[in-house]
Amino acid sequence: MIHNPLNQILAPQSIAIAGASNNMSKMGTMQFLNIIHSGFKGLIYPIHPKETEIFGHKAYKNVQDIPSTPDLGILIVPTKLVCELLESFGQKGIQHALIITAGFKETGMDGKKLETHILSIARQYGMRFLGPNCLGVINMHLPFNATVAPAPVNKGSLSLASQSGTYVAQSLLYLYKRGIALNKAISVGNEADIDLVDCLEYYLDDDTTRAIGLYIETIRRPQEFLDIAREITQKKPIIAQYVGGTDAGARSCSSHTGAMAGPNHVYQGLFNQAGVIRAHSIEEVYACGHALATQPPLKGKRIAILTNSGGPGTSMANTLDLYGLQVPPLSTTIQNRIKSYLPGHASAKNPVDLTFHTDMTLITKTLPDILLGSGDIDGLLIHGIMDTGWAELFYPVYQRFAGDSLDNLKKMFQSDMNGLIQLAKKYHKPVIVNSFFEREDHAKSTLMDNAIPCTTSPELAAMMMAVLYANYCIQNRKNSKIPEITTPKAAHEIIDANDTLNEYQAKQLLRAYNIPTCNEQLVESIDEAILAAKDMGYPLVVKGCHSDIHHKTEHQLVHLNIISEDQLVHACKRIHETQTLAQFLICEQIQGQRELMIGMKRFANFPPCITLGFGGIFTEVVNDITLRLAPLSYNDAFEMINSLKSYTMLKAFRNFADVDCWALASILTHLGQLACHFQCISEIDLNPVIIQGDKPVVVDALFLINNEREGSHLSY
Amino acid sequence: MIHNPLNQILAPQSIAIAGASNNMSKMGTMQFLNIIHSGFKGLIYPIHPKETEIFGHKAYKNVQDIPSTPDLGILIVPTKLVCELLESFGQKGIQHALIITAGFKETGMDGKKLETHILSIARQYGMRFLGPNCLGVINMHLPFNATVAPAPVNKGSLSLASQSGTYVAQSLLYLYKRGIALNKAISVGNEADIDLVDCLEYYLDDDTTRAIGLYIETIRRPQEFLDIAREITQKKPIIAQYVGGTDAGARSCSSHTGAMAGPNHVYQGLFNQAGVIRAHSIEEVYACGHALATQPPLKGKRIAILTNSGGPGTSMANTLDLYGLQVPPLSTTIQNRIKSYLPGHASAKNPVDLTFHTDMTLITKTLPDILLGSGDIDGLLIHGIMDTGWAELFYPVYQRFAGDSLDNLKKMFQSDMNGLIQLAKKYHKPVIVNSFFEREDHAKSTLMDNAIPCTTSPELAAMMMAVLYANYCIQNRKNSKIPEITTPKAAHEIIDANDTLNEYQAKQLLRAYNIPTCNEQLVESIDEAILAAKDMGYPLVVKGCHSDIHHKTEHQLVHLNIISEDQLVHACKRIHETQTLAQFLICEQIQGQRELMIGMKRFANFPPCITLGFGGIFTEVVNDITLRLAPLSYNDAFEMINSLKSYTMLKAFRNFADVDCWALASILTHLGQLACHFQCISEIDLNPVIIQGDKPVVVDALFLINNEREGSHLSY
User: Fold this and answer.
1) What is the pLDDT of residues A418-442, one digit of tens each?
2) What's A379's DSSP letter?
3) Do residue B538 and residue B438 come from a single domain?
4) What pTM did the predictor assign?
5) Which of A551, A583, B215, B236 makes the best surface tag, with the fewest CB within 10 Å?
6) CB-based contact (8 Å) between B692 and chain A?
């Protein structure tokens, strides 16, 4: 924690700020005033070429004139002034900077050069900085709000890091209205220096941060992201939205922060491996992040629904079911206890439906006590708590016919929320409350301010429970070590001796990593083919083998079901008709109807990505591919297998055996090692891998080698 | 329209109401006062056993004492009083009633009896009623708010019908805050008499209703729902949430309104067939319904995004892409025009990103004019419009340092929204605006009140565009007639002659409906089998055939790839070993790797449901079944085929031919006719239907017959 630059950026004791003036309509001025108004207690030194005083603060012409060395320098100046000022910060000995100014990488080549330049200035002075093109940081607990957006101080446990400044600075009122309290928020901008990984490292050690929300357009250091996120998610949850996975999203990312996005399934694989929960909207980042930050663990799938209206209760039940949670009928004992409090037509099963009811005691105290204390359930969703919101709504009618004051009416309706707040703490189970009211309702705002998540959407409330359960599963997942495999000597020999690999060599390489392939012999002539066939026995497969050949089936170079010498000779002749240079690969015929595809692809900045999916003619249909970043632990491999949508296909069904998942996991981890050992291998395609009995066997293998060998042989 | 009872229920000229008193805390009283306060201009007669006057209105001991016959009678009384009062309404000649009171079908058997009883009372007097167990109706245009919930009158074009009263009565403030204006809303309750279908019929003819939102736990008259919804969705959109499709949802429905829910895929099929857009939350019903009600058609997929912040712009682009819409780069001409207004680092591609900007003219007028007028795009999403909301937020800082009044600051920020409002009208293209502010912001509230949908979620805004496009496709889909097929004589003969059907008879029946099956002969002995084989030629399939046999493969009664007389005899012997009574079915062997499953199932109250899905060993994996209600038009059948997730499998790929979809559609429509003609057939399973070349051929057929023949032979 000591060396993380964010320590000082989020909690400086003194600040130099360039860009503020006495013109209140300027962004720099607003930001300056906002820092003061937000309650920052440290020293603040405005820098201005002309002004001598800015809103009561002595202004300095030059950063050098400041009597001490500030912890943090903030730049909200025109782009062209950034270099000069940053240099002067460096000369002054300022170690940390916040560069709000835009106009860098996101604008094209010139901007990119400028960004490289400011990075080199910072490096020169050992300075670390956030930005450029960001909106600043917020630390609700100091308090220190260095964004342009004023907001009620609302201290919470959810911390954000975002590649969009808007999601940090413009949503503060929105969050306050929804009772979502932040701890810290970081707008990372172009990430020229400090990036998401630094933010994660900082939040890992930040004790008051209980959950982390991320908005992501790109991850610039995927391996480091994976390492730190995997460590964090064992202790505190991360929820992330990633928006660069579509064509339109990727294009937009690029013009926003100059970010290079990657395909969705690569990021999904990274998130899964790291234990990062995926959000599909910024609302989910906020709302689910807030639930994760405030609620105790949801230790099981059993949710009680307590409602005074059937519709929302049913919507919650339906949504919970869709997310794989349960709404179990309560035990008879509990039902009977509940029934004693309900009107005749109400249901005590689960959902417990009080039907329309104006006394809030049942729904905020009596029944939650029974439900949370019961042992029947792991979490509680409530719909319909409200008090003064209703009074306010009804007041125009009331005033007209009863003539009393709004305050009196509110007092009449106001309910005591203390029961529910205490029960949630006492039973240490998650509680989430829905109604169509918001902060205007005393009940709702009281719950909000006491760490009970409140929603205006039954479906969102249910989904938040699902996220809590997902987090519980992540925190309790097994984590095995990554097996250490030294590069086999045989593998070195094969790679060193060949610029390209044909199928036979590819499979030799696989076998060097203990990856099972079909038995096969490579022969030069038809006579040798006949001998090999005698040796191996029929049925056989005969293939043309040549390193230039990639799509054998389309080129009629694969002949299956060869059961006689005649057929063998015929097949060899057909192969030579198509490809005179081909050798013959005489292969054991692997029997099995289930086919898998296993592969390795490289994406810019990413470690090698291992993929697993269903193969055969249904590949296009099933479109079911999981991905993880190598090197893989056995648990990574097992999770990869389990997360196949068509995972059930690997289980015993009809006449099929239960697939040996250890054997499959072993192929995946070993292939990952292979990819890490040889960076010259740019792509691997094992297709099909046929399940014979219960064992996966590689039947065809394609390796693409990048012959610019600089990177080869290096362990990742 | 003349006879729809909702005409009078939603727009009565005089009302009798039982349940109101001078006790203001009673629900009946609140409802009574709310009717008056909402601006109802008609006559209103409270009925009360003791009071002589209720809040200034003369009260009547008895409905008979009322000087005229009210259009509508409202009951908000204890359950036990409902029968008596309803009877008195009938005697008075009241033709329409609204029964708010609960305690009927939703409470169990006794309640169900009571509900049947009130229905019989109503029938006796020719009375139509809404409820029981409902929360009333709202007609914003009269105005007439007969619910317990006071709300600002906010006239719009979206009308609701809901099986949850909460979604009609408790969400009014929520809707107002979000700018969602209702036209009419109906809480249907238990639907003892008037149901969703009546609501749809009413809304079809209601000119001011431009879109319909539904909350559904069950559809009690699926055929009628399909017929009316299909007619409506050619003219105005319907968006519906269905929550009964999961186990937990279905259980909750049953205890809420006594509704019997059905499996999700059945309702999904019904919605697809009817052109009903499916919502997954009540928020989507409201928000997307509002967009549908206010926006002109989105006539293409090309959306422009105009933003002053990269994050929300990117999220919108990503979401649009996920929903199949496009964010096309704008033409150079348009980009250049836009660039002339943008700061250097801003992007004009699409998203058009102004970056942080406080002058709202560009984003509300100049650029929307260029974009909407361009011909490059079909709809416009804007993020970041705000004015006084920001001022209010900034005011504490402003007051402290500038000391001016909030009003002055607001005036300084206040922007003119008229430009955007006029442009949206002028270009007749959908415009949706997002920002994190709500009604507190003058810009947002002005847009809201001028029929421009406003959101606080970039992803929701994008999704609303997707819904607009879905509606455009629905309104422009082809509608073909349902082919009239008379019951073939041969079919009658087969059904009349048999209590059960074996495979051979089943296929005979299919052929009578011109559904292609494999060629086959049914024989009694091995000798006959040999003769048949000679006649048909090898390869053949031999099956044991007996009406009791349902799972032939598991019982080793199917022998594929019979290529010689020896194999034939062996197969027949094996069949007789397992099932001595079986006949032999000698079938042409159909070649093809693609297998479909076609079926017919019946669900309570539903017309026969025709299903189509992928078959073979991957059935479990692909889990891809579409469903439509018979009888089917050819368009229904084509849409069914097209909506298969694995539809691409039917197209030409690898060595596979393009499937003859006319032939496939023909099987589906004809099977639908068959199911409608013979209600005694309770289930049909054609599995597999093998694609041979490009033609589907039924290879196996299983029919289950319900021998309680009352319903048979009746055309549906």
Assistant:
1) 999 999 999 999 999 999 999 999 9
2) E
3) no
4) 0.95
5) A551
6) no
